[in-house]
Design brief:
The protein is an alpha/beta fold. It has helices at 2-9, 29-40, 54-64, 80-90, 104-114, 126-137, 145-157, 162-166, 172-182, 187-194, 198-211, 217-229, and strands at 20-25, 45-51, 68-71, 74-75, 78-79, 95-100, 119-121. Helix 3 (54-64) packs parallel to helix 4 (80-90), helix 9 (172-182) crosses helix 11 and helix 9 packs across helix 12 (217-229). The relative contact order is 0.10.
Length: 230
């Protein structure tokens, strides 16, 4: 006990910094494992839990007591946005970072409104991912420079693109489907990606066309691609 106290006093191994506890929620095991290895190599960060299902992740929060949850938007059985909303509603002090393959321009604003403190795409370099984690843990908000500038212009001058304002009509799941259409994925591919039936995706596509005042499937694809590139 005496030597332990001496180590702490002198800055020895036992005096190490507190490691922030991070929970990972992603439905791809390889992605989770890779991210966990990246985080656990950092002296101030540690993964306290991994989940692929939103309901399981939400139930584990009280026991694991994470400082930060990193959430993908596409999860088994639920949209990651729903997990963001539910987690923030039940645990207001919990910090949340969304790490996803979906285009930032479609999701960043909605993610922040849902209660997350940042959005970063999976394509980013590991250094940026770690930077985003630390920025959110430090009480800040993380967005790419491009997205941050875009949101600032919207705040100052109002939304100028009609498509952008119409997208607000879409539900979280509809926006997810819309984003995947913009990536060139067909109905069956989207169904497999979201773990939903083809019939359900066809229903979502119909609702999207109706809400965006689109005439047919071709117009839907063109608008989805343009929105992704905006």
């Amino acid at each position: 006990m005496k030597s332990e106290l001496s180590e702490k006093k002198n800055g020895g191994p036992s005096a190490g910094r507190k490691r922030h506890r991070i929970m990972l929620v992603d439905d791809h095991p390889v992605m989770r494992e890779g991210l966990a290895q990246l985080i656990n190599h950092e002296p101030d960060l540690s993964v306290c839990g991994q989940h692929e299902d939103a309901a399981q992740a939400f139930a584990a929060i009280p026991a694991l007591a994470p400082d930060l949850i990193i959430i993908d938007l596409t999860l088994k059985g639920s949209s990651g946005l729903e997990l963001v909303k539910n987690s923030r509603a039940s645990h207001p002090k919990l910090r949340i970072l969304v790490l996803s393959m979906h285009e930032e321009s479609l999701y960043a604003e909605r993610v922040l409104r849902a209660g997350a403190a940042g959005y970063i795409m999976k394509q980013e370099a590991t250094e940026k991912v770690l930077g985003a984690i630390r920025q959110v843990l430090g009480g800040g908000v993380y967005l790419s420079e491009k997205m941050g500038s875009k949101l600032m212009h919207q705040m100052i001058g109002g939304k100028s693109q009609q498509t952008g304002s119409l997208l607000e009509r879409l539900s979280d799941r509809e926006l997810e489907v819309f984003g995947l259409i913009g990536q060139g994925k067909g109905t069956r591919q989207i169904a497999e990606h979201l773990h939903l039936s083809v019939k359900t995706i066809e229903s979502h596509r119909g609702h999207i066309k109706e809400k965006l005042n689109l005439q047919d499937a071709n117009e839907l694809v063109h608008v989805a691609i343009r929105a992704r590139e905006a």
